[in-house]
Amino acid sequence: MSAIHEQAMHYIYQQVLERLLSHMSQAQRASVQLLIQRLLVAAGGPEYIGTFRLLVLQGNDRRSAHLLAILRAAQLSIALRAPVTFQLRVLVVNLPTAGNAALDNHERSFNALFMQDDPRVQLQMTEGCEVVPFNRRPSASTERWALARNAMLMFGHGVDARPEALLGSRLHLELAGAVGVALQAQSRADVLITAVPARQRRRYLAWARRSLCQAGERGPHLLHQCLATLASGLGRLQGVAGSPLEPVGDPSRVVAEDATLRVIAIDDLLPHLLEQEQLDLMLGCRLDPDQDAWPLAAFIDPKALAQLHELRARCSEPMGHRQALRLAGPCAFDGQREPASGHPGKAYGISQTQLICLLFSPFARQGKGLERFLQCRHPDMQVALPYLHRALQGKPCPDAVKDWLVNTSGLALVQLRAIYEGRLQPASRRLMANLARRDVHLKLLPAPFVAGRPGLEGLP
């Protein structure tokens, strides 16, 4: 029965390959053959291709979808000529979290390429600091996002709350952390394969090394060609940004030599990567063309930034009728109901009220913007303003006031007091200031408006 099953699967894979190649242009079919040659050389010869393990980061753009298609074509082509072929590990990345539309796109592509039940293919996705099997319905648990949640709140309240900074270069640390976790698996990858253009790769490496240096990291990862070592260093920076009150640990730890991960860039083999529409039809892709222009943003949910801007704009509108003030319960800090639709902080476990508080960042610089925040969003709490300052200064005050601060901000009181007093570890402060300078494309952001709250000069 196993022989019959194996023969049937061989026939199915052959049909998938023929259908895939028929939807490719002549240039793309030629690229498949050149890719096969490169992989055979990188593996050390045809006799080692069966144990050769490839890792690909799957973003929600056409470049990622076509890269996966050409890799699948190479995998099946080798399998038809030889008894074995390379192992492919696909890691779906979409930060802050993969939305339904992105997961639908990935699932359609995987089904079209017949990857779901192929033992030579491992499909995974990131959920916070963990790597889990790919699932169309991700886990609703927010425990996996605890570190990322804390990093986002501390960054916005203490450094820069502009949407481009919140969902900017700091998300690349989360990406590096996820890659680092993926590389710790039992079957480690030998090569990461990418189609990101050389100019963007150089920009990313320059940003990564500068971030490591400014955070006080010293070690071979600064000049090392191993991606696993670089991901390990950036993963540690994620911990520094997420816990800016704790002293930075020993940065001398590096990845073991047997974990070396090379990078194969094949952007030169895909000159028509963004032009072939027939391949999109075969894969069932419904992608935003604007994503193709920014390869470094392929792993970021494009709707998250727009939603954050929309929420920021609504913060400037006058507040409607409020319910009576109730300090006791966790939902008492804002009478406004949260909409049923999702928002960028939902995956982290951040409520809309806490996200609005984050956009105002009222606690920094000894609470300079706290009174204005209360006037705009919580007028019923203006009478408690002196007690709020006392709580943030560590002085005695009613417990209900402390509960309101914690519930409204999403941070612990000790973190709020550190933000209020500006007490951050020097390495964390340097790192977070560097992260605030660039957006998700790693392009420089204009300096924040210093006279008011960072990034909220347009709010009332």
Structure description:
By secondary structure, this protein is of the alpha/beta class. It has 2 domains: 296 residues, no CATH class; 106 residues, no CATH class. Helices cover 47% and strands 7% of the residues. It has 18 helices and 6 strands. The chain has a 6-stranded mixed sheet with strand order 4-3-2-1-5-6. α1 crosses α3, α5 crosses α9 and α7 crosses α9. The longest helix has 21 residues. The protein is elongated. It starts with a helix and ends in a 25-residue tail after the last helix. The C terminus is likely disordered.
- Main β sheet profile: 6 strands, mixed
Rough shape? elongated
Helix content estimate: 40-55%
Please work out how many helical segments DSSP would assign. 18
Proportion of strand residues: 5-15%
Mean pLDDT: 83
The strand order across the widest sheet is 4-3-2-1-5-6
- Global structural class: alpha/beta
Give me the strand/helix succession.
HHEHEHEEHHHEHHEHHHHHHHHH
Instruction: Return residue spans where pLDDT drops below 50 for at least 5 consecutive residues.
Output: 251-257, 321-341, 450-460
The overall number of domains is: 2
Alpha-carbon Rg, integer: 24 Å
Total number of beta strands: 6
Distance between the termini: 72 Å
